[in-house]
TrEMBL record:
It comes from Chlorobium phaeovibrioides. Keywords: Nitrogen fixation. Residues 42-438 form the Nitrogenase/oxidoreductase component domain. GO terms for biological process: protein-containing complex assembly. Belongs to the NifD/NifK/NifE/NifN family. The gene is nifE. Pathway: Cofactor biosynthesis; Fe-Mo cofactor biosynthesis. PANTHER family: NITROGENASE IRON-MOLYBDENUM COFACTOR BIOSYNTHESIS PROTEIN NIFE. Transmembrane segments: none annotated. This is Nitrogenase iron-molybdenum cofactor biosynthesis protein NifE. It comes from the Bacteria.
C-alpha cells in the first residue's frame, strides 16, 4: 500500500521482478539497519541453532540469564536417547561479575555441571557482555578440559559481532575441533554425514531411514539427534550431504579441505527436491548400481502414495498466492517448487541469511512480479502481503502475528514446530497445513485491510 513507506536505506535489499526492469543487484550479507526492527536473529542465536541439538553434550551460556532463555524451549529438536541438551544452563552473571570478571564463576559452573551430568563434551557460549568485559573463556575451557578429560569447546558467539550467519560459523569452528578425534575403523566406504539437519519433529530420522534403505551408512547427523562420538569420527565418511547450506556449508568446506571429503547441497522439502536428494547421493557411488535402484524404488513407492493425495489439495488451492519469508534462501527454492505442485504462485520470497548467488537463483525461478527481499521487517512484509494480495504467509514464530493481524493464512516452517515437513511424508503434512490454513472459514470474519476479502 502506498501509505506504507520503505526505509530509504533498505531500498537496495528489495527487488521486484519485472520484464525489462532494472538490472538485478540486490544488497545482502550486511548488518541489519538500525531502527528497521529486523526479523534477523543475533550471532548467539545462530550458534545455538547449530550446536544445541547435540544431545549428549553440556551447553552452558556464559552471560546474563536472559540469553539462556533463547535455547531449548523454542526449538523442536528431539533426541532418541540423551536429553542433556534440553537443560538450559547459564552462569547467570550479575553486576559484580561484570565489574570484576566472570571467569571464576564460569570455571566453578563447569566443574560442578560436568561432575553432576558426565557429558561427552561441553560447549561454552560467549554472549555480548562477555565480549565487552573480556573474559578469556578459551583459557578457562583449556583448564577444565585438562582437569576433566572431556572436550570443553568455546563458542565465540557474542551477539553484537555480526549476524546469525556469523553464529553459524562460530558453531562450525567449534564442531571442527571435535571432527577427526574419533576412530573410523567401523565406517563403510559407502557412507555419509547428514549436515544441516536439526531433527525438528524427528525429520532427521525420516531422512536417515531413506539413506539406510538405500544401503548407505549414516555416520553422523550434524547436529539433529547428534552424539559427540559420532561427530568425532565424521571425518571417516565418504560424502557430506548439506541440507541447511547457510549454517553448515563452511563446515563441509573445512572437512573437504582437511580430510578430502566431497560435499553436495540438497533439500528435503517437496517431492522434487527430496527425490533429487536421494538420486544425487546415489550417483556419488557409481560402482554400486544397487544404491540407485533402491533410491528409485523408494521414490516410486512414496510418490505413488503421495501424489493422489496432493491432487485433492491442489483442486482447492490452485490460483492462491503465497508469501515466503524464512531463515535460509535454499529453503525458499524448495518451498516455491512445493507450492507450485499445489497450483499456488509465490508473490513474495525472502530470507534472513541469503547470499548473492542465492538471490540470483531465486530471481531466475520466480514469476514476474515477485518481490524478493533480504533481511526484511514487519512493515515491509505487511506492505507486500497487502499489495500482492497474498492468501498465505510461510514463516516462523515472528511472522505469525503479521499474518493473523492482516487476516492471512499462516504456515509455520520454523524451528519450534512439532510436525515434520521434510521427506515425502513431510510434503503431505505441508500440503495439509497449507490447505487447512488457506481454506479455513475463519477468514470470512477477518476481511483484509482496505476492504479486500
Amino acid at each position: 500500500m502506498e501509505q506504507i513507506q520503505i526505509l530509504k536505506d533498505r531500498e537496495k535489499q528489495i527487488f521486484e521482478k519485472k520484464d525489462g526492469g532494472a538490472a538485478f543487484d540486490l544488497s545482502c550479507e550486511t548488518t541489519s539497519l538500525s531502527g528497521s526492527v529486523s526479523q534477523r536473529a543475533c550471532v548467539f542465536c545462530g550458534s545455538r541453532v547449530v550446536l544445541y541439538p547435540v544431545a549428549d553434550a553440556l551447553h552452558l551460556v556464559h552471560g546474563p540469564i536472559g540469553c539462556a532463555a533463547y535455547t531449548w524451549d523454542i526449538r523442536g529438536s528431539v533426541s532418541s536417547g540423551p536429553e542433556l541438551h534440553r537443560l538450559s544452563f547459564s552462569t547467570d552473571l550479575q553486576e559484580t561479575d561484570v565489574i570484576f570478571g566472570g571467569e571464576k564463576k564460569l570455571y566453578a559452573s563447569l566443574i560442578e555441571l560436568i561432575e553432576q551430568y558426565q557429558p561427552k563434551a561441553a560447549f561454552i557460549y560467549s554472549t555480548c557482555i562477555i565480549g565487552i568485559i573480556g573474559d578469556d573463556i578459551d583459557a578457562v575451557c583449556r583448564k577444565v578440559a585438562k582437569e576433566t578429560g572431556i572436550p570443553v569447546l568455546p563458542v565465540h558467539s557474542e551477539g553484537f559481532k555480526g549476524t546469525k550467519k556469523d553464529g553459524y560459523r562460530a558453531a562450525c569452528i567449534s564442531l571442527m575441533k571435535l571432527v577427526g578425534t574419533g576412530e573410523t575403523d567401523d565406517i563403510s566406504p559407502y557412507s555419509l554425514n547428514i549436515l544441516g539437519e536439526f531433527n525438528l519433529a524427528g525429520e532427521a530420522w525420516i531422512i536417515r531411514e531413506y539413506y539406510e534403505r538405500m544401503g548407505l551408512q549414516v555416520v553422523s547427523t550434524m547436529t539433529g539427534d547428534g552424539r559427540v562420538d559420532a561427530v568425532r569420527k565424521a571425518h571417516g565418511a565418504a560424502l557430506n550431504v548439506v541440507q541447511c547450506s547457510g549454517s553448515m556449508t563452511s563446515l563441509a568446506q573445512d572437512m573437504e579441505k582437511k580430510y578430502g571429503i566431497p560435499f553436495m547441497r540438497v533439500s528435503y522439502f517437496g517431492i522434487e527436491d527430496m527425490a533429487s536428494a536421494l538420486y544425487d547421493v546415489a550417483k556419488h557411488f557409481p560402482d554400486r548400481p544397487d544404491i540407485m535402484e533402491k533410491a528409485r524404488e523408494i521414490v516410486k513407492s512414496e510418490v505413488e502414495t503421495l501424489y493422489p493425495q496432493l491432487q485433492k489439495f491442489k483442486a482447492a488451492l490452485s490460483g492462491k498466492k503465497a508469501a515466503i519469508y524464512v531463515g535460509g534462501a535454499f529453503k525458499t527454492f524448495s518451498l516455491i517448487k512445493a507450492l507450485r505442485s499445489l497450483g499456488m504462485s509465490v508473490v513474495l520470497a525472502g530470507s534472513q541469511t541469503g547470499n548473492s548467488e542465492d538471490y540470483r537463483n531465486l530471481k531466475e525461478m520466480s514469476d514476474e512480479g515477485t518481490v524478493i527481499v533480504d533481511d526484511s521487517n514487519p512493515v515491509e512484509l505487511s506492505k507486500f502481503i497487502l499489495e500482492k494480495e497474498a492468501d498465505l504467509l510461510i514463516g516462523g514464530v515472528k511472522e505469525r502475528p503479521i499474518a493473523f493481524k492482516l487476516g492471512v493464512a499462516f504456515c509455520d516452517h520454523n524451528h519450534e514446530r512439532k510436525i515434520p515437513l521434510a521427506g515425502f511424508i513431510g510434503m503431505y503434512n505441508f500440503a495439509l497445513e497449507v490447505y487447512q490454513s488457506v481454506m479455513s472459514p475463519v477468514w470470512q470474519f477477518a476481511p483484509r485491510k482496505g476492504g479486500q476479502k
